[in-house]
Write a structure and sequence with these properties.
single chain, 88 residues, alpha+beta, 3-stranded mixed sheet, 2 helices, 28% helix, 20% strand, globular
């Protein structure tokens, strides 16, 4: 999990994340979006958004998610503390 406090970001970065949440219609998404037959290598992503007293979590396989959700997850991952570090 990569918690991101929007108030700590530059205003334009916070606006981008808010826009991605809105574009994905995040709070209307089902809690799980999984492939019908998952493989052992299928990573399960989990994104939780807290906004104005609402909390919603979506777990999904990348190739079972709509592109808007995948874009949001990618943006969050790129802002993680480990982003940009070489993989072991």
């Amino acid at each position: 999990m990569y918690p991101i406090e929007l108030d700590s970001l530059r205003p334009e970065d916070a606006a981008r994340l808010r826009s991605l949440v809105k574009t994905a219609d995040f709070f209307a998404l089902p809690a799980k979006m999984m492939k019908p037959v998952a493989q052992s290598w299928d990573f399960i992503h989990s994104v939780t958004v807290e906004d104005e007293g609402k909390v919603h979590t979506v777990q999904f396989h990348a190739d079972a998610a709509p592109p808007e959700l995948a874009n949001l997850a990618k943006e969050v991952e790129e802002r993680s503390p480990s982003a940009g570090r070489p993989k072991p």
